[in-house]
Design a protein that fits this description.
- The termini are far apart.
- The chain is an alpha+beta fold and 85 residues long.
- It has helices at 25-30, 32-49, and strands at 9-13, 16-19, 55-59, 68-72.
- The relative contact order is 0.20.
- The longest helix is centred in the middle third of the chain and has 18 residues, at 32-49.
- Strand 3 (55-59) and strand 4 (68-72) form a beta hairpin.
- Helix content is 28%, strand content 22%.
- It is globular, with a radius of gyration of 12 Å.
- The chain has one domain.
- A four-stranded antiparallel sheet has the order 1-2-4-3.
């Protein structure tokens, strides 16, 4: 589903999925807070709708990538251990 919507997912670690592309990049350049919030809400709803537990959508902006990363529940942005805090 993520590929079909243009997010270009790539697994960075065994537990982290980074989205290499923002499908709304032109809009995100003008209103990043709005678009990143929309992406976060969309991906959170997607996970909730599929009843996927143990995974969360995390705001983790990086230049040239989508501002959302899919990580194990309980981890913070930048925490690559998968153990949370």
């Amino acid at each position: 589903m993520l590929d079909e919507h243009g997010y270009e997912p790539v697994r960075e670690t065994p537990t982290d999925l980074r989205l290499r592309n923002c499908p709304f990049h032109p809009l995100a350049a003008k209103t990043p807070d709005l678009v990143c919030g929309m992406n976060h809400a969309f991906l959170t709803g997607y996970l909730d709708g599929l009843r996927i537990s143990g995974v969360q959508a995390v705001l983790a902006p990086e230049p040239g990538k989508c501002c959302v990363r899919l990580s194990p529940s309980g981890t913070e942005p930048g925490d690559r251990t998968g153990e949370g805090r």
